Amino acid sequence: MKKHSYIQMGLGMDIAKSDFSACIMGFEGKKKYKVLASSKFSNTPSGFEKYWSWSQKHLGKHDCEDIEYLMEATGVYHENLAWFLYDKSVKVVVALPSQAKDFMKGEGIRSKTDKIDAQGLAKMVLVKDLRAWQPISSSMQALRSLTRHHETIQKDLTQSRNRLHALDYSHNPDKFVAKQLKAQIKFLEKQRDQTHDQIEATVKEDEKLHEKIKHLTSIHGVGLLTAAVVVAETNGFELFTSEKQLTSYAGYDIVENESGTRKGKTKISKQGNAHIRRILCMPAFNAINVEGVFLNLYNRVFERTKEKMKGYTAVQRKLLCMMYTLWKKDEDFDYSINNKTVEEQNALLH
């Protein structure tokens, strides 16, 4: 039986926690795309093996040398499959959620099911020229695990302190419960400090990572923990080619609410990495305590909106973009920027 030839073939995978939908699509040229197969598999090692057998069986029915696999970055649930395919020496692409969403919107795909999403991703890898995924380094993987653990401990610590505070002000507080809470707080504080020390040690073990993070901490208000979280959550900004992609990934992209003559409030989407937004709150407060570009930005936004929180959010966004710039350029923050005009500052920040 003669095999049908395709210029390119794309395999899209829509990943969920427990399973994933897969689609194989062929490109014949002249904007002709054809769905060749669709199926669903468990998001487990055995499911990966079944997926590989299924995909190779269908790919073997056609002639094509240009084959690419695309999945969307969904928390951590895509990582094991990405590693599995990477070890098979095939081209794996991991797209940002915002990239996939924009592509679907541009294609006029309004329905949303796992099967349709997989088809959209399969077509996306055929239409777009996307960069191959590179696995996260061992030091970066350890850093992300440590920073998320530190965040969890800090949340538990805050909850325990709040509970103890409420107990202290209650009528006839139970001494046993108070003793337990105090012991718990002491234990969590010790774990938090130990985890912070381990984060610092992990950064210092990797000389290149250490030097790059020092560039980020040259910004007033950005400490080691802040820099470590941002770098770990973005894999050293590996997936990003623009500030727009980065701010969208972190949920700082602007959502407008206008229709006809009605003008609603603009706000950030918050549809992104919450770990980054959480860690940038305190640095934004600190950054506006000194004269300079961040204080100027805060004042401009506050003057326009009369809302302090919008000013702080704008500073968080600018801090993230500045960290991205310093990382890419291997430079420290230039404090002489504070003596320049607003136009000159904006030119240097991009």
Describe the structure.
The protein has 350 residues and is an alpha/beta fold. It has three domains: 4-127, Nucleotidyltransferase, domain 5, CATH 3.30.420; 141-205; 209-350, no CATH class. Helices cover 55% and strands 15% of the residues. The protein contains 14 helices and eleven strands. Strand 6 (67-72), helix 2 and strand 7 form a beta-alpha-beta unit. The longest helix is centred in the middle third of the chain and has 31 residues, at 138-168. The chain starts with a strand and ends with a helix.
Mean pLDDT: 90
The class by helix and strand makeup works out as alpha/beta
Shape: globular
* Strands ordered across the widest β-sheet: 4-3-2-6-7
Sum up the structure in keywords.
single chain; 350 residues; alpha/beta; Nucleotidyltransferase, domain 5; five-stranded mixed beta sheet; 14 helices
Short structural description:
The protein has 350 residues and is an alpha/beta fold. 55% of the residues lie in helices and 15% in strands.
Q: In terms of topology, how is this protein built?
A:
Blueprint: E1 4-5, E2 8-15, E3 19-29, E4 32-42, H1 45-59, E5 62-63, E6 67-72, H2 79-87, E7 91-95, H3 97-106, H4 114-127, H5 138-168, H6 175-205, H7 207-216, H8 224-233, H9 243-250, E8 254-255, E9 258-259, E10 262-263, E11 267-268, H10 274-279, H11 281-287, H12 293-305, H13 308-329, H14 342-349
Parallel strand pairs: 1-5, 2-6, 6-7
Antiparallel strand pairs: 2-3, 3-4, 8-11, 9-10
